[in-house]
Design brief:
This protein has about 170 residues and is α/β, with parallel strands linked by helices. It has a single domain, classed as TIM Barrel (Alpha-Beta Barrel). Helix content is about 40%, strand content about 10%. The protein has eight helices and five strands, in the order H-E-H-E-H-E-H-H-H-E-H-E-H. Strands 1-2-3-4-5 form a five-stranded parallel sheet, with helices on one face. The relative contact order is 0.12. The mean pLDDT is about 90.
């Protein structure tokens, strides 16, 4: 993934990561290039990379690409796989204001709620369909997203889930 030090957002950073890995890795590997609001040419031209990673709602500094106007050009240009972390940044900011001052860690699930995940997944699905672009939704986190995709998922869209999203909830 591109959220490393240094960030993998340019051909030079990708080349550096590949060289450092070649000196140490004993298994096959590949790297995603990270989307920023300003690196569209790198996303289209960087080689070799297994795809583009978009962080729609998580705070990863320059890797945060949360506005539809920033995300759509990534879907519109090129052919490589887009893998994304689906969260609606605007909803998260709104919810943080609503829960300001509450220090209980359980409030995290209310701030980054099901609706924040669903909104982002709907946007990514819409853009994937519009541009016929391969999409992989990383660590699907809600049942409502799964149901949406069960009912309306083109063959070129895939997803996965991590064990904590399947097995843990606020009671755990």
């Amino acid at each position: 993934m591109p959220n490393t030090r240094p960030l993998t957002t340019t051909q030079a950073a990708l080349d550096d990561k590949l060289q450092r890995s070649a000196d140490h890795c004993l298994v096959n590997y590949g790297f995603f290039i990270g989307a920023t609001a300003a690196n569209l040419p790198d996303l289209i031209e960087a080689e070799p990379t297994c795809g583009i990673k978009i962080f729609m709602g998580s705070s990863h500094g320059a890797l945060l690409v949360s506005q539809e106007a920033e995300i759509e050009p990534i879907f519109a240009r090129g052919k490589r796989l887009i893998a994304l972390h689906a969260e609606d940044r605007a909803r998260i900011i709104e919810r943080r204001k609503q829960f300001a001052g509450i220090t209980n860690p359980a409030v995290h699930s209310q701030i980054q709620d099901e609706q924040a995940a669903l909104n982002a997944t709907k946007l990514a699905l819409k853009l994937s369909k519009k541009y016929q672009r391969r999409l992989h939704i990383l660590h699907l986190s809600t049942g409502i997203e799964a149901e949406l995709l069960r009912q309306d998922k083109p063959a070129w869209v895939t997803t996965e889930v991590t064990p904590q999203h399947l097995l843990l909830n606020t009671e755990a």
